[in-house]
Design goal:
Blueprint: H1 3-16, H2 24-35, E1 39-46, E2 51-58, H3 62-70, H4 79-83, H5 93-96, H6 99-103, H7 106-112, E3 117-127, E4 132-140, H8 148-186, E5 193-195, E6 201-204, H9 206-214, E7 218-221, E8 224-227, H10 230-265
Antiparallel strand pairs: 1-2, 1-4, 3-4, 5-6, 7-8
Helix pairs in contact: 1-2, 1-8
Length: about 270
């Protein structure tokens, strides 16, 4: 498989993980292999509290990850540099401090060297006032310290990981909103129904289902909410039709405004 084919396959796996977080471990393992590393992580670090949160990892030693969280995050000389790093820019150890100085640190002697590691290349994918979220890879002795090829491979992968994490966050947020709406509906003592402009029933709370089960006031036929009384049902249909017309009207006004803007920008194209 060519390098481009491997990259295309990896990118596909990255976006698959937006809908199934269980895939992230495999994705990170694939990314580490593509970049040329022994392990990869998605982490968040707080440079002031010296606290770390591990989201996902592949290939890392669980014992040393726990040691890092408990003790060595506070000794990591790279954290401040990571926090001030540019979004998506790969940063190896030598980009943040002289490598010979890094080799003299307690962090290197007690945490990095015992694992046979020689470098860490991280890239910021999100940042808040206190935390920095990163995708990073560990280079083992067999890989050697990061070179330009390492950075180039990181630059090809990081933007997709960043977008995938943003998509995952949006999906989680929308799911939480949907659950909140459902909880609010289900908390109503009176019957509550959520329907679309075609009258299709989207959701009914417990009291609403009781009403539907009785069939005296409302019922569902072919997925659509119907009023048992003919006049009442006619009123409901008219209300839904009016709502649909208003929505179409708003869309038409938006399209007309876009058309006028286009003509102003490109008068020749509009005749």
């Amino acid at each position: 498989m060519s390098g481009n084919q491997k990259l295309t396959q990896l990118i596909g796996h990255i976006y698959d993980a937006t809908l199934d977080p269980a895939l992230w471990r495999g994705v990170l393992g694939h990314a580490a292999q593509f970049i040329g590393a022994s392990a990869a992580v998605l982490i968040s670090k707080d440079p002031t509290a010296r606290r770390v949160c591990l989201f996902h990892e592949a290939g890392a030693d669980p014992h040393y990850l726990q040691l890092y969280s408990n003790r060595y995050a506070a000794l990591d000389p790279l954290t401040i540099g990571h926090y001030f790093g540019e979004l998506e820019r790969p940063l190896a150890v030598a980009d943040l401090l002289p490598y010979e100085e890094f080799l003299r640190t307690q962090f290197y002697k007690e945490w990095v060297r015992p694992q046979g590691l020689v470098d860490f290349v991280g890239a910021v994918i999100d940042k808040t006032g206190t935390d920095v979220a990163m995708f990073g890879i560990f280079r083992h002795e067999k890989n050697g310290v990061a070179d330009e090829n390492t950075r180039q491979c990181m630059r090809m992968v990081v933007p997709h990981i960043r977008r995938a994490m943003m998509i995952s966050r949006a999906v989680d947020f929308n799911q939480a909103e949907a659950l909140t709406l459902k909880d609010a509906f289900d908390g109503f003592g009176a019957g509550a129904f959520l329907i679309d402009v075609c009258g299709r029933l989207v959701h009914a709370n417990a009291a609403g289902h009781d009403i539907l089960n009785s069939g005296e006031l409302l019922r569902v036929i072919d997925g659509r909410l119907m009023v048992a009384d003919a006049e009442g049902d006619k009123t409901l249909r008219a209300t839904l039709a009016s709502s649909a017309d208003n929505r179409l009207g708003r869309r038409a006004r938006v399209e007309r405004r876009r058309g006028r803007s286009l003509c102003r920008a490109h008068p020749a194209a509009c005749g």
